[in-house]
Amino acid sequence: GQSLEQPSEVTAVEGAIVQINCTYQTSGFYGLSWYQQHDGGAPTFLSYNALDGLEETGRFSSFLSRSDSYGYLLLQELQMKDSASYFCAVRGYNQGGKLIFGQGTELSVKP
Amino acid sequence: DADVTQTPRNRITKTGKRIMLECSQTKGHDRMYWYRQDPGLGLRLIYYSFDVKDINKGEISDGYSVSRQAQAKFSLSLESAIPNQTALYFCATSAQRENKAPGELFFGEGSRLTVL
User: Which residue of B has its CA nearest to A29?
Assistant: First the structure.
């Protein structure tokens, strides 16, 4: 089977940097995705890592270590609007391309 | 207009009633999915379909059925709703070819279902 673990809550202040970790277990692995969700709205895609290393998109970066079955989402220069839930998700060989999601991390950004 | 549209957006029903949630998309994607979200449990996959003739069970398919009426339409049915099916339901789509936005799903706005 597949499983993912991420912290349930993270709190940080505006302007700071925060890292949200994700560890996964899956048989076979295509890649790790990250999604953002505001207040029960539609989740939106942030990033995808298929190879080891850091992918940067503006203030957000995502990292993957396949050997450690570990990844993280890094948010820099935090803004109040970054307060949201963040989900990691894996695509594994045995999953036929479908995504299995973690339980989500609720990020609260304080003034 | 939204690329992935779900109807209804909100529904309150009673135990034992049959409910259908509908999803339509204009993205031209072959792959469609139904997820369920409960507080603290993330998004759990109910069913998915990779083309009109393809239906697959996800993590939590018991008590649900689906129909892929056309490439653009994927509906989720609860034949006899029960209170623990109260949840937020999301439809999503993705591109078939892996090198085209791999790992990216496009979600609808969600359908909030309450079963009394």
Answer: B103
CA-to-CA distance for B25 and A86, rounded, in angstroms? Answer: 24
| A88 DSSP β-pair partners | A34
In this structure, what are the phi and psi dihedrals at residue A42, rounded to the nearest 5 degrees?
-65, 130
Contact (Cβ atoms closer than 8 angstroms) between residue A1 and residue A99? no
**At a CB cut-off of 8 Å and minimum separation 6, what does B62 contact?**
none
The whole-angstrom distance between A79's CA and the closest CA on chain B is: 24
pLDDT, one tens digit per residue, over A42-84 is 999 999 998 999 999 899 999 999 999 999 999 999 999 999 9
| Amino acid type, B101 | A
Mutation pick from B46, B66, B100, B104 vs chain A, by most beta carbons of A within 10 Å, is B104
B30-45 pLDDT per residue, tens: 999 999 999 888 899 9
> Which one has a higher pLDDT value, B20 or A29?
B20
Whether residue A38 contacts residue B106, with contact meaning beta carbons closer than 8 Å, is answered with no
Q: Which residues of B71-108 are buried (b: 16+ CB within 10 A; e: fewer)?
A: ebebbbebeebeeebebbbbbbbbbeeeeeebbbbbbb
Q: Which residues of A touch B105 (CB under 8 A)?
A: 35, 43, 45, 99
Structure token digits, residue B47: 């069913």
Is there a contact between B24 and B5 (Cβ–Cβ < 8 Å)? yes
Partner B contacted by A88 (CB < 8 A): no
